[in-house]
Design brief:
Protein name: histidine kinase
InterPro entries: HATPase_C_sf (IPR036890), Sensor_HK_TwoCompSys (IPR050482), Sig_transdc_His_kin_sub3_dim/P (IPR011712)
GO molecular function, one term: kinase activity
Catalytic activity: ATP + protein L-histidine = ADP + protein N-phospho-L-histidine
Shape: elongated
Radius of gyration: 39 Å
Number of helices: 13
Low-confidence stretches: 302-312, 399-405, 446-460
Strand content: 5-15%
Distance between the termini: 76 Å
Domain Signal transduction histidine kinase subgroup 3 dimerisation and phosphoacceptor: 233-302
CATH class of the largest domain: Alpha Beta
Length: 461
């Protein structure tokens, strides 16, 4: 039993020793030592500049004098110069590029990309503090790495070489037998102390790096705004695809299904109905190809440094409403008022999509074109707002419902909200009513301020 405990203690001791050596001499410690040495090298120009002015004040014969006063005086004067020059915006991405592969810190904790430039006062001050710390500590480690190893090797060999002892002018007691044991140990201890000092300095920089080179609150806010803008753009594309392609596929599927059922019956006028259905399918498919090309063009937006996405979107507007109603497969009575040409293009495009989604709902839940009850559409253009109302009788039997509900009515609410308006949908006195009010003079609302939940979300069809 004692032997087993002794063996376990020995293994534990060996493991601890290996862990300590890895911490002092492992790959991470070596990379951090390289990072510190680079900081010392970057301080050298500042040190030389400071030595030119500090030399006369310290009484040195020249700026390359080896006096301690000159060395440390120039070092102390160089650090403020580093702090001032590190206020430049470009200093932060350069520091991040140097620290990322060498500090042993997860890359995501640093500022990256275009956001790396220090544009705010807080970011510049943090970068200045980092550069001062990195260069200052790095210079001390670099100096020690240059001076201490040769001195430690000299201490280790001086008891064994009289010529080296005479050349160094070492005291005579180093020739004693005890010195031949203690001197090598002292030299090894110096080297281990240097490694420990370097590892501790590297660990200090690794701990401080995310605080000084990581994102500031302004960076986090800007990143959140970029993510929100990207999400809003994705939602916008999803709405366009849903309303254009989704409507077309629903209409084509229902028209084709109705034509197939009619061909299987012997009712008079079958051929004429099928002909009209096929013509509607052809027209819908042809129109949707153009709309799909427009929507896919949004995916390439920005490759040529384009303008505001809200301003360069093209697509059908209220002027194309007659064609949409004629080939929708739904009997629609249209009531219009005002001048559609006075509606801004952005509002006109969104109004078209809202009507398109209303027609898709009528078709989808009626069961097919032949079964769809007449719908009433009202498009009224006023001085300040555009009011769209679509009503259709509720079907006697529930129509097919997709698992999880549809997304069209939520898209209608988002379109209206982005324009500063509102939309409502739901059963009203035996009819299904979809209404939207769109301001004509109010600019597009920022996507970051759009509601997270649609007011129509509870009535998705």
């Amino acid at each position: 039993m004692r032997h087993r405990h002794a063996a376990a203690a020995a293994r534990h001791g060996v493991s601890a020793l290996c862990g300590a050596l890895a911490a002092l001499l492992g790959r991470r410690a070596r990379l951090r030592w390289v990072h510190l040495v680079l900081g010392g090298a970057l301080l050298m120009p500042y040190w030389l500049l400071a030595a030119v002015f500090v030399g006369p004040l310290s009484g040195a014969e020249g700026f390359l004098d080896n006096s301690v006063a000159l060395q440390f005086g120039a070092y102390a004067a160089a650090l403020p110069l580093v702090a001032v020059t590190a206020l430049a915006p470009v200093a932060r991405p350069l520091s991040v590029a140097l620290a990322r592969p060498l500090c042993g810190v997860p890359p995501e904790r640093f500022v990256d990309g275009a956001a790396g430039l220090a544009r705010t006062r807080a970011a510049r001050l943090r970068t200045s503090a980092w550069c001062t710390l990195h260069f200052g500590v790095g210079a001390l480690i670099s100096g020690a790495s240059l001076a201490l190893p040769p001195f430690a090797v000299s201490v280790m060999i001086v008891p064994f070489s009289g010529s080296v002892r005479d050349w160094l002018g070492a005291p005579g007691f180093l020739a004693q037998p005890a010195a031949r044991v203690l001197a090598p140990l002292a030299g090894v201890a110096m080297l281990l102390a240097l490694a420990a000092w370097s590892a501790a300095a590297g660990a200090l920089l690794a701990r401080v790096a995310p605080l000084l080179l990581g994102p500031t609150p302004e960076d986090r806010l800007a990143s959140a705004e970029r993510r929100a803008a990207e999400l809003a753009e994705r939602n916008r594309l999803a709405r366009e695809l849903h309303d254009s392609v989704g409507h077309a596929l629903s209409a084509v599927t229902l028209q084709a299904g109705a034509a197939r059922r009619v061909l299987g019956s012997d009712a008079p006028g079958d051929v004429e109905f099928v002909r009209e259905a096929l013509a509607a399918i052809e027209d819908t498919a042809r129109r949707t190809v153009g709309e799909l090309d427009c929507v896919l063009g949004l995916l390439r937006h920005g490759e040529d440094g384009g303008a505001d996405p809200a301003g360069d979107l093209t697509g059908p507007g209220l002027d194309a409403l007659d064609g949409l109603l004629a080939r929708s497969g739904v009997r629609v009575s249209l009531t219009s008022g005002g001048d559609p040409a006075a509606v801004p293009p952005a509002v006109s495009r969104e109004a078209y999509r809202i009507v398109q989604e209303g027609l898709s709902n009528v078709l989808r839940h009626a069961g097919g074109p032949a079964e769809a009850a007449p719908a009433a559409l009202s498009v009224l253009v006023g001085d300040e707002k555009l009011v769209i109302t679509m009503e259709n009788p509720l079907p006697g039997r529930p129509g097919p419902v997709r698992p999880g509900g549809g997304r069209g009515l939520r898209g209608v609410a988002e379109r209206a909200s982005l324009l500063g308006g509102h939309a409502e949908a739901g059963p009203r006195q035996g009819v299904w009513r979809l209404s939207a009010v769109l301001p004509l003079r109010r600019p597009l609302r920022s996507p970051l301020r759009s509601p997270l939940r649609s007011p129509l979300e509870g009535h998705q069809r």
